[in-house]
Amino acid sequence: MPRSGRRRLAVLEHLAQRFEPGLRYPELEVNRILREVWDDVASLRRYLVDAGLLDRAAGEYWRSGGPVEV
User: Fold this and answer.
1) Which of 21, 29, 36, 70 could be cross-linked to 25 through a Cys-Cys bond (beta carbons 3.0 to 4.6 Å apart)?
2) Burial level of 45, CB count in 10 A (0-12/13-18/19+)?
3) Backbone phi and psi for residue 33, each to the nearest 5 degrees, phi listed first
């Protein structure tokens, strides 16, 4: 994982595309999806939320930013 900046954002945007816009995911499902990429899923979740690519509430996550394929 890049330390910060544009490279990290590019990686996080790529990861965010694993989540369908409009769907809510329980934390266990988010962990399963992210574990395919990196074992430290807690850090990945935090990075995605901090970057504004995922939002969370009541144990659920949903995609809130990043590019969308059409």
Assistant:
1) 29
2) middle
3) -65, -45
70: confidence class by pLDDT, cuts 50, 70, 90: low
Sheet holding 24-26, edge to edge: 24-26, 60-63, 54-57
Q: What is the pLDDT of residue 18?
A: 95
Q: Are the beta carbons of 63 and 54 closer than 8 angstroms?
A: yes
Instruction: Check: CB of residue 52 under 8 Å from CB of residue 65.
Output: yes
| Three-state secondary structure call for residue 28 | helix
Q: pTM of the full predicted structure?
A: 0.91
Nearest CA among 20, 13, 27, 65 for reference residue 2? 13
